[in-house]
Write a structure and sequence with these properties.
Two copies of one chain form a homodimer. The first copy, chain A, has 15 helices and twelve strands. Chain A is an alpha/beta fold.
């Protein structure tokens, strides 16, 4: 059999609700489900038996009927397709609602196959000339506004001195603000406001649709001199996301968690590892204490996973969001420190006519905070 | 404001864990989260307020602390992008783990925008000349086998007289059986065996990777005279899936549930409505009583959703799979009746040297069953 194939392997760790008596059989069943998906006794090929079938490496019992099983798989099963990596990690087991994917460990070969972010946290910081402080961001909404109103809003937010202004992830290519009209108008408004503030405020248009559609969108983005975008990999597909990252090495990509929440993949693995692996320079995720249910521990773990040394991969910047307010800036910076981008959308927009002033206060709060 | 836009709307129904005191506020919060995602009071535009913000239409209380909230949204928010429909239905709310998407109701405009299956259940039946009986299928695995062994396996399965033989969804474009070599070899083996049986057995290659990669794969598929494929829309992205359906109206598409299990979208909606809407002629899903946890009621609801009248959309054929055996054929046909494709993979492969005979017994059991 194909002796020439590399022997690289990866591991996935699953949390499984089980009894102590059954966990070994459960873990073995997951190893089979995620690899050959057929009765092991019926596998006649020795190489497949020795190399391709997932192998249970360790089972631990942290208690409360939730066991952790680490399973090793052949990297040859993945090839170079991000979708196939997801499929191997959790494709069928996602259908078993007592199984959660809680960790992933990849060999150097897969890390270099996918490559991670081109710019990373440091690149996002450099783009806006922000040093020794956290970064600031807001979002353009509501969807339904016509292009000129969104552009006016962007101008007022940029006048407040933000680092990044992103399209709401609900802004796709709708008739009320089509991408091809929206992006030039907003980019122009942000440029104009930046001249006034002297800041390098960046606009992040939201990509959507097929790979073709997103390539067309990126052509518009580049034409406008915009150098970063927002994308929701679990909506577009991770393969499309990764293809765009490879094709546009000069563009920074911020990953949005839409449709990722229900994946039963632990958020630190999903955002801090997988999205980073496929090329996210920054990862938006729901902050604790807002309208989503992530705990402070989960948020801390997302930050840690995105920043942890991982082969040659650049770090992905943590971008907590969702129901945040400018009043929480000191608390949030006490918690996150300097390596974070605080994204406040609705909390600023609620200021209405005072939007620019409210934004400036947010920026000021972040810049005047005494970082440890 | 844009009065010329169509006033079409769609509804999504969510199951929400809540108290009676809080459910109204929760439902309103979901309506806002899934539309404008900002404080309603800060929305200045009257058209957005009247048209774009999601509206809670009904809240029911089936009991046990689980409420059902039906919310109406503007179809203008979707445009023509399947990913954006998912995003509008469940993008951010997927991150709230006490919310499940349990139903979707779409206007004629969105039904015709997406269009549904080109062939549907009747087309899958017609392709193999199967009338008045259920259909039969099996799967090629394990991944890791070289192309010639997979082709030999396909030939032995086809010799048993199956209607459909699919690639395991784990077969991507790996070095041990690259798509460009695998598909011609397997197609040839199935054609040769079909000459012997006189049956129109069809081979379903599994698509994977980016839209570009899948287009390239479909070119190979067509070159080989193969007219149906397998695809996992939650791995590839629904937009890529739908684009391929539109580009290849002569190809039948069978949807695989990989990565769909954890989506917290009720399986009948996910497979019987959304996958069908985007073009699945048949939908593979985990059968009850196998190694997955779907109940008989869930399976019945998937079948019903795929077959229910829905605008001009063709019906999607139900394809239960996962841990099924030929011994269960009478029980399964008692349950499903004639409008089903029974997919037995590992249960046949376990027969080893007797694979063709075991397959023929499965086919015979399905054909000799007395359908009501």
């Amino acid at each position: 059999m194909p002796h020439s194939l590399a022997a690289a392997t990866f591991t996935a760790t699953y949390r499984v609700r089980s009894t102590a008596a059954e966990i070994e059989a459960r873990a073995t069943a997951i190893a089979v489900e995620q690899s050959i998906e057929m009765p092991v006794v019926a596998v006649e090929d020795a190489w497949v038996r020795d190399t391709i079938i997932g192998r249970v490496e360790a089972i631990t019992d942290p208690g409360q009927g939730l066991f952790e099983a680490r399973i090793r798989f052949s990297a040859d099963t993945v090839g170079a397709d991000p979708g196939q990596l997801l499929n191997m990690l959790f494709g069928n087991s996602s259908i078993q609602d007592d199984v959660t994917l809680i960790d992933v460990d990849l060999p150097a070969s897969l890390l270099s196959t996918f490559g991670g972010p081109h710019h990373g946290a440091a690149g996002l910081r450099q783009r806006v000339g922000a040093h020794g402080r956290a970064l600031t961001a807001s979002a353009l909404k509501p969807q339904g506004l016509p292009t000129d109103q969104l552009a006016a809003l962007a101008g007022r937010l940029a006048a407040g001195g933000l680092d990044y202004i992103k399209d709401d992830h609900g802004l796709a290519d709708q008739s009320f603000s089509p991408f091809s009209a929206r992006v030039p108008a907003i980019a122009k408004a942000v440029r104009a406001a930046s001249l006034g503030t002297g800041r390098a405020t960046r606009y992040l248009p939201s990509l959507s649709g097929t790979l073709d559609a997103m390539r067309h969108q990126l052509a518009i983005v580049r034409q406008e001199g915009v150098d970063c975008v927002l994308i929701a990999p679990m909506v577009t597909g991770v393969a499309a996301f990764h293809a765009l990252v490879i094709e546009h090495p000069e563009i920074a990509f911020i990953a949005h968690p839409a449709m990722a929440g229900a994946a039963r993949i632990a958020p630190p693995v999903h955002f801090g590892k997988l999205f980073r692996l496929f090329g996210a320079d920054g990862v938006v995720y729901p902050n604790f204490g807002g309208r989503f249910s992530y705990s402070p521990d989960t948020c801390r773990a997302i930050v840690a996973a995105g920043a942890a040394p991982w082969g040659d991969l650049k770090a992905a910047l943590a971008i907590p969001a969702g129901g945040m307010t400018a009043q929480r800036v000191p608390e949030l910076l006490d918690f996150y420190g300097v390596d974070v981008m605080l994204l406040i959308g609705g909390g600023l927009l609620a200021a209405g006519k005072d939007l620019t002033a409210a934004t400036a206060r947010f920026v000021q709060a972040v810049e005047s905070y005494r970082y440890a």
